[in-house]
Amino acid sequence: MSVDTESPGTDRLPPARITYGRQTWREVAFLLANLPYALVGFVYTVVTVLLGVGLSVTVIGLPLLAFGLSGARGLGRAERARARALLGVRVDEPSRLPRRHGFFPWLWSSLKDPVAWRTVLYSFIRLPWGVLTFTATLVALLVLWPVLPFVARGLTNADRGMVRGLLSPSDELERRVAELESDRGVVVDTAAADLRRIERDLHDGAQARLVALAMGLGLAKEKLLEDPEAAAAMVDEAHGEVKLALQELRDLARGIHPAVLTDRGLDAALSSIAARCTVPVKVTVDLDRRPAEAIEGIAYFTVSELLQNVSKHARARSASVEVWRRDDRLLLQVSDDGCGGARLDGGTGMAGLAERLGAVDGLFVLDSPEGGPTTVTAELPWRERSAAATSSSS
Question: Exposed site from 48, 214, 292, 322, fewest CB < 10 Å?
Fold first, then answer.
């Protein structure tokens, strides 16, 4: 009796022949197990999914359907594992659903999950197919022994087609859509946090100072005739408050989008924030032209936050910033000779930077062993600057 040495982890199988090697017996085992697996999947689908659809007019219907669809993903995972082990079908696992904060976002994401719905369809059609394959295989085992390898191969080829067609990721677009939906949530959360920061800075800084200025000028007006010297002193103090308020507004505007970045580009803007760092920073920008405004802004604020970390946490003597372009990517690297030990979960804002870069299809790599040095490398997609922006900045 010959032995089939084909590995179960490959898609290319030897042709069926009148031999009873390992692959044939794996296929027979798969076909005989079709019926119990199909019964479990069909009963689960009927009880949870159909019940959820039927009760969708009630409060519990849609949540029950969402939970049922989440469980259907588990059924699909088990079927993919069985097909890989016994049929040698290499099927990638579909991407996980992006995390949703809140009940209703989770509910909507679960209800429109294409992977779960395809698994539901798979579970429905598997019951009659499971009965057919179980019966045919059993008959071949008892009566049609010489042609069992051909029967097993023909039936499992149909199984392979169903697994690939219904249980594998439909295409890369599905995975990319899920990633973009998750990234969109990060962008929205980041924008909301930035708006709250601007509101807080206005309320606690310039607004409070302007209110005090208005009160001081009001008192000076009242004393103008009674005590001109005191009024003059109050006006002089108010003049100082005006300067401070203007500086705070300039700092706030720089935090939104610095004028030097708009007018002169990354080289001048990064040199400006490097000059405010507590350690000497060498800035090298090697770009033959400017990237799109959004990419330029993200690069600027990424370097700005990294240099703030150098000032606050690194205990460094020097740092460097390098920016260059490679093909269709904008790369930036910020290094320091400090104490190291920075982590994405270390509370220094690294995780937030990584999320922001990921939201625009960028990369964020942190190398910071204990004792230093620390090197952060970031990549952003290169996008050409619009003609209108180019003309306005020239």
Answer: 214
